[in-house]
């Protein structure tokens, strides 16, 4: 039988906007000593703004933004939403066919009959193109049109207001290791990790690499310490399932994430993770 205080714990958490999908996850949460975060949309707001546009090969800032926004027409990634928002003109979806997401890389599409690639350096390398080395702190979207480098767009995200305090609270609550995993560039990851005083970060990861990192961290765990992974689940539902406890951002996160997660944060605030751990510990101290 389930002790009555479990219901108190789950109920208390739900008042904070934290949905816990079972009393076993309350137990796991109480023992969390490693918290692994996805970056975009989890520690950062996931609302990018365009900070620079560098056209090449006869493109203008507007025509480069237009081709990128068209290519991003059908992606639900926060990056795609910001590129569409940055382009001021009309976007006619009839000009776009064969659009596809390449997780952790970017998007491809056929626009006005031309093959367009919008993505990071890894994606262009896969297409056999060496991209210029960009010395900026920002996420870079390189644009390729029919194999010709058309330029790049620099976008930047901001850290969530409560992210820094959350990391401090987690450490104060005895969490030993805070880790950020991201598919973004090393420079961007280093800057966010420094701002938030994270213990550790790993950049330029594909969704499969994130699973491997989490497995390595799980293997390194000792005693009863548990690992929580927190993400918005765009491209990383597999990591949510692999962690001891998978925590999803429920408001902006994808349906797949909410499905795969054990705990859902209704308002996407990282500070609710430290609150949920506190509620879980209090509940478990009452139970035992
Ligand atoms: P994170 O790990 O930070 O949550 P993702 O794994 O979703 O990020 O994406 C990793 C990287 O892949 C991004 O930083 C970007 O370079 C590239 N990328 C992903 N989706 C897109 C997209 N829709 N358009 C362009 N680039 C993208
Ligand atoms: Mg993500």
UniProtKB/TrEMBL annotation:
The keyword Metal-binding applies. GO terms for molecular function: ATP binding; ATP hydrolysis activity; ATPase-coupled monoatomic cation transmembrane transporter activity; cadmium ion transmembrane transporter activity; metal ion binding. Its main location: membrane. The keyword Repeat does not apply. It is found in: Cell membrane. Keywords: ATP-binding, Cell membrane, Hydrolase, Membrane, Metal-binding, Nucleotide-binding, Translocase, Transmembrane, Transmembrane helix. GO terms for cellular component: plasma membrane. Belongs to the cation transport ATPase (P-type) (TC 3.A.3) family. Type IB subfamily. This is Cadmium-exporting ATPase. The lineage of its organism: Bacteria, Bacillati, Actinomycetota, Coriobacteriia, Coriobacteriales. The chain holds residues 312 to 599 of 650 of the full protein.
